[in-house]
Amino acid sequence: MQKIAYDETYRKIRENPREDWRMVPDSHPAIISWELFDEVSAVRETEQAIRDERKKWCRQRRENNPNIFKGRIFCKECGEKLVCHWQRDGSLYFYCKFCHVSISEKDLWNGIHKELYQRMEEHKNLKKLIQKNSENSNLETKKIALSREMEQVSGNIVRLESQKRSGYEQYVLGKLSKEKFLELKQNLENEIVEQKQEKTKKEKELALIQEELRQKKQVAGNTEVLLTVDNLLQYVKKIEVDRRKITYTEFVF
């Protein structure tokens, strides 16, 4: 090994090939034999290859599995966000740089899953949940009101179409002049277009309310839900960790 100590450009250590090594005879006895040196070198190369492979795997895991807890996990003691650290095995480790609160990715998943399961058990009875949850009750009320309004709009369209046919019959029988008929027809068609637009608008509103109700009922009724990346992002709003590595999760429902 040759150390370049004085050149500011090359403050590094480099290894010369074995054929360039210089030996001073009779200076001191050899510490180890060439055979043992070759054996140790092979072991070191193998260990380095394992470390490189582990680094490559960790790098790929970071690229393919981003930190989904970012911005969601906080220290229970001081309220600061926990810092994320990637360990050598490719797993995540979270810690607070102020209070030294820490938790591993595995313990964090287990804690959140336990709390999520308990929350699902609390909402096991869907009917009781809807009665207690005023938001769901309001959605059900809006759904009923929109359905009635749509029935009324559909009835208006049928009535206007009937008036248009009746006007045409009167025109054919000579009871209505052509000018009056065309004026009546145009007015009725304008009203029909307005009613159809109103019906389309209410259908979209009803579809949104039905989808929101479906999601809430699915969350409330499913007690066997497993914690995955998708429902973590959907259900979990905030996570707090204390010194005993106990999680306190704030859900969005």
Report on the structure:
The protein is mainly alpha-helical. The chain folds into 3 domains: 30-58; 73-124 and 227-251, no CATH class; 126-221. 58% of the residues lie in helices and 11% in strands. It has 6 helices and 8 strands, in the order E-E-H-E-E-E-E-H-H-H-H-H-E-E. A 3-stranded mixed sheet has the order 3-7-8. Strands 4-5-6 form a 3-stranded antiparallel sheet. Strands 1-2 form a two-stranded antiparallel sheet. Helix 4 runs antiparallel to helix 5. It is elongated. Mean pLDDT is 75; it is low at 220-225.
Summary, kept brief:
With 253 residues, the protein is mainly alpha-helical.
Task: Annotate the secondary structure layout.
Elements: E1 2-3, E2 13-14, H1 34-64, E3 73-75, E4 83-86, E5 92-95, E6 102-104, H2 105-122, H3 126-132, H4 134-172, H5 178-221, H6 229-235, E7 236-241, E8 247-251
Helix pairs in contact: 4-5
Rg, nearest Å: 37 Å
Strand content: 5-15%
Low-pLDDT runs of 5+ residues are 220-225
The topology string of helices and strands comes to EEHEEEEHHHHHEE
SS summary, helix count? 6
Decide which structural class fits the backbone: mainly alpha
Oligomer: single chain
* Helix-residue proportion: 55-70%
Task: Please supply descriptive tags for the structure shown above.
single chain, 253 residues, mainly alpha, 3-stranded mixed beta sheet, 3-stranded antiparallel beta sheet, 6 helices, 58% helix, elongated
